[in-house]
Specification:
Number of strands: 10
Order of helices and strands: EHEEHEEEHEEEHHEH
Shape: globular
CATH architecture of the largest domain: 2-Layer Sandwich
Largest sheet: 10 strands, mixed
CATH superfamily of the largest domain: Pseudouridine synthase I, catalytic domain, C-terminal subdomain
CATH topology of the largest domain: Alpha-Beta Plaits
Structural class: alpha+beta
Distance between the termini: 35 Å
Oligomer: single chain
Strand content: 25-35%
Number of helices: 6
Number of domains: 2
């Protein structure tokens, strides 16, 4: 039975997150509905590299599924894109090894968070970037982010609803750059906890706005207390950008 690996992108605005939820429209639900149609009524379970919350977008989400259909990747690509809703696009399709797993084989991920630094509303960015009206000290944010790099217990930077007990993760890179009038915060790590990137963003924004000292990050990590970190930034500014499946690819990331 072929195992199919796909890289997909989606606009998360109209979805209640990635994962299937009863009575709600989700990315996984639309994928499985389309695959069931292609498989003439047979249910197909889709596995992803990870979940995304309501409103969160993806540029490089990775999924896999098993099927009895013997279809070439190019035909899968065409068939899926012809049936999926406009908010979801399949970027690539490959025949994977039989033991490949989109989630458990991932060795790292990259997320990007987009900020509109303006006091004036931009209706064209309202679903794709978080508007932040206050001036930011980027040097203070960079100083703070350096303390977050490396291997730490990120309990202070994940939702209280996080289910996993092991909250040790390695942040390999945090950087900032401007693109098309937006400030982009880029995070690369071996894995991320529930709401981790959004809480990191919220905390760094407090540093940039002068409401938190840049040198307070190590203490936050040591506290292992969610209530000590900043607010969770809104989901609509967040993008799952890329999933890495080998250490070499992660090392030469761009």
């Amino acid at each position: 039975m072929p195992r199919i690996k796909c890289t997909i992108s989606y606009d998360g605005t109209g979805f209640s997150g990635y994962q299937v939820q009863p009575g709600k429209r989700t990315v996984q639900g639309e994928l499985e509905k389309t695959l069931e149609r292609l498989n003439k009524g047979t249910s197909i379970r889709v596995n992803a590299s990870g979940r995304t919350d309501a409103g969160v977008h993806a540029r490089g989400q990775v999924i896999h599924f098993d099927t009895t259909l013997e279809i070439e990747p190019a035909r899968w690509l065409k068939a899926l894109n012809s049936l999926l809703p406009d908010e979801i696009a399949v970027l690539s399709v490959d025949i994977a090894e039989s033991d490949f797993h989109a989630r458990f084989d991932a060795v790292g991920k990259e997320y990007r968070y987009f900020l509109l630094l303006s006091k004036h509303r931009n209706p064209f960015q309202r679903n794709y970037a978080y508007q932040f009206q206050y001036e930011l000290d980027l040097e203070a944010m960079r100083e703070a982010s350096k303390q977050l790099l490396g291997t730490h217990d990120f309990t202070s930077f994940c939702s209280a609803r996080t289910e996993v007990e092991d909250r040790v993760r390695t942040l390999k890179e945090i950087d900032f750059y401007e693109e098309n009038g937006l400030l982009v915060l880029r995070f690369v790590g071996d894995g991320f906890l529930y709401n981790m990137v959004r809480i990191l963003v919220g905390t760094l924004l407090e540093v940039g706005a002068g409401r938190r000292a840049p040198n307070s990050m190590l203490q936050l990590l040591e506290d292992m207390d969610r209530t000590r970190a900043g607010k969770t930034a809104p989901g609509h500014g967040l993008y799952l950008w890329k999933v890495f499946y080998n250490e070499k690819e992660l090392a030469i990331r761009k």
